[in-house]
Write a structure and sequence with these properties.
six-stranded parallel beta sheet, globular, alpha/beta, binds zinc ion, 18 helices, 19% strand
Length: 522
């Protein structure tokens, strides 16, 4: 007897090929049969008449990371159809733990022992035992490694330090991490150069690992930043992914994405193996300090930065650099997320915050806010062109990601991509804007990331593949979450099945956990 039979559905099997009608039987967490009509019965019968059945979605760019231990249900993932996430992106991974103040606070917030984060093998050995709502995999982050070995040093590593960093990559790869991620916009990765990056990427490549990069610049110098990453791939021989492809900062940079896609195509023609990922919004989301503090400013200690930020001459210099970089005097394009020490400003644009503070200049308000909030705080930045997003959605080498983890209990305001990314792509970019055909988009959400990250049993509706399945109404599926209210639910997503268990029905998690933290086939 089968556990689940899905009957009468229109199947898009993940290959990008045309749809067909068939029944699907699920048993022991696997797809056991795909046939025109299945005559046997099952414990759970799902009538998918009028609905589309696809492989479960793969979140190619996630920040699940440490959250797999604290919030293993991964509600925000399964309620948007994500059955597997690729975490540890943008240079940040749950391990190794550096002993830094920021990391200590984060670990303390989890109520967990710092020791389990000391290296990736220790972390994975524990994380693998915790049942999950969806599957999660992890890359090891260069920033986490560099922080553990060199702290926030603004210099190249010594030979000894480089060897220590390589050992962390090796430990992670031998424990089953998928590869290595760079976060060159963040500390301390922003202080590294190509020789260091290539040396570490080479270690990941020896194990067949993938190397991803949040590149050094996503504005005026975005083409040079892509080229720098391609150089690392060339020198290391690793397969690569350019993270959250975009050209932003000033509006003058919009449209440069066409050149970036051409650079990636040329690299592939040359023999490299390079991809990109993208999320479906016109705003990015990150901490305030990496956006508005220069890499020189951020080389200071936390306490020195707090003192410096009070000085009028420091403020004037930072303001000048940012006005040039972002091409405008105002900060109306910045909307604050959760601000722990000043919740009255949450969800507000910086223009409103400045008015509430009685400040004429938005930057004055921003610097005051950073001091008030101990240099922390995240925001959504409306700096991306929707035409660019559409163009990348249609790019054959672009996969889809949320660029999000799961919701922390303390999270009040956040970017809607946390909950709405995949339904939004299908509803707004495929159905409404026609940025890509549905079969092709399903491929970019399923078999393509499965191939890039070597997930051999995922991404296809086929006998013996893992029973990770989405069932939705292609005429109705749409995101709910907005920049005003990121908690609103998606619509038109009828069932999400993870590892043969029904993880969500009508966009609501059932509480069943069919997933786990999985490691690369060793
Ligand atoms: Zn990033």
């Amino acid at each position: 007897m089968y556990y689940i039979i899905i009957r009468n559905g229109k199947i898009l099997d993940g290959t990008g090929g045309p749809s067909f009608y068939a029944d699907i039987a699920v048993k022991d967490g696997k797809i056991a049969k795909v046939s025109k009509i299945i005559r046997e019965s099952a414990e759970r019968e799902i009538d998918a008449r009028g609905l589309t059945v696809t492989p479960g979605f793969i979140d190619s760019h996630s920040h699940n990371d440490s959250w797999v231990l604290l919030q293993p249900l991964q509600k925000e993932k399964i309620e948007q159809g994500i059955t597997t996430s690729i975490g540890g992106q943008c240079g940040g991974s749950p391990a190794p733990y550096s002993g830094s103040r920021e990391k200590a606070e984060q670990v303390g917030e989890f109520g967990l022992e710092c020791d389990i984060y000391k290296d990736m093998s220790t972390f994975l050995s524990i994380a693998r035992t915790v049942p999950q709502g969806a599957n999660s995999m992890v890359l090891v982050g260069h920033n986490s490694i560099r922080d553990a070995v060199m702290g926030n040093a603004f210099r190249a590593p010594t030979e000894e330090e480089l060897e220590k960093m390589k050992a962390f990559v090796r430990d992670a790869m031998e424990a089953g991490a998928l590869g290595l991620s760079f976060g060159l916009g963040y500390n301390p990765g922003c202080y590294s150069e190509v020789p260091e990056m290539s040396a570490l990427a080479k270690v990941a490549a020896e194990y067949g690992g993938v190397v991803t990069a949040h590149i050094r610049n996503e504005g005026d110098n975005v083409a040079a930043a892509v080229k720098e990453f391609l150089q690392v791939l060339r020198e290391s021989g690793a397969r690569g992914v350019v993270s959250h492809l975009k050209s932003s900062d000033r509006e003058e940079n919009w449209g440069k994405v066409h050149n970036l896609m051409r650079l990636i195509d040329e690299a592939n023609a040359e023999g490299l193996d390079v991809y990109a990922d993208v999320y479906p919004y016109n705003a990015y989301n990150t901490s305030l300090l990496p956006i508005f503090g220069t890499i020189e400013f951020r080389a200071n200690s936390h306490d020195v930065m707090l003192e410096e930020l009070k000085k009028p001459e420091v403020r004037a210099a930072l303001r000048k650099r940012n006005v040039e970089r972002y091409g405008r005097e105002d900060l109306d394009w910045v909307q604050l997320n959760t601000i722990a020490n000043a919740p009255q400003y949450e969800g507000k644009r910086m223009s409103e915050v400045a008015a509430m503070m009685g400040k004429e200049d938005h930057y004055d308000a921003l610097f005051d806010l950073l001091i008030l909030n101990d240099l922390k705080g995240m925001a959504c930045y409306f700096g991306i062109s929707d035409d660019d997003v559409c163009a990348i959605m249609g790019y054959e080498r672009a996969m889809i990601g949320t660029d999000s983890g799961v919701g922390r209990p303390t999270l009040r305001k956040y970017h809607p991509r946390l909950r709405g990314s995949f339904p939004r792509v299908l509803g707004r970019y495929v159905r409404e804007k026609g940025a890509c055909t549905l079969p092709e988009m399903i491929r970019k959400m399923t078999s393509m990331p499965a191939a890039v990250y070597s997930l051999d049993t995922k991404g296809l509706i086929k006998v013996n593949m893992d029973a990770d399945i989405c069932i939705f109404d292609e005429n109705k599926i749409i995101d709910g979450a907005t920049f005003v209210d990121c908690t609103l639910k998606n619509e038109g997503l009828n069932y999400v099945i993870v590892g043969g268990k029904i993880a969500a029905v009508d966009g609501e998690a059932t509480g069943e956990k069919g997933g786990r933290v999985i490691t690369r086939e060793l």
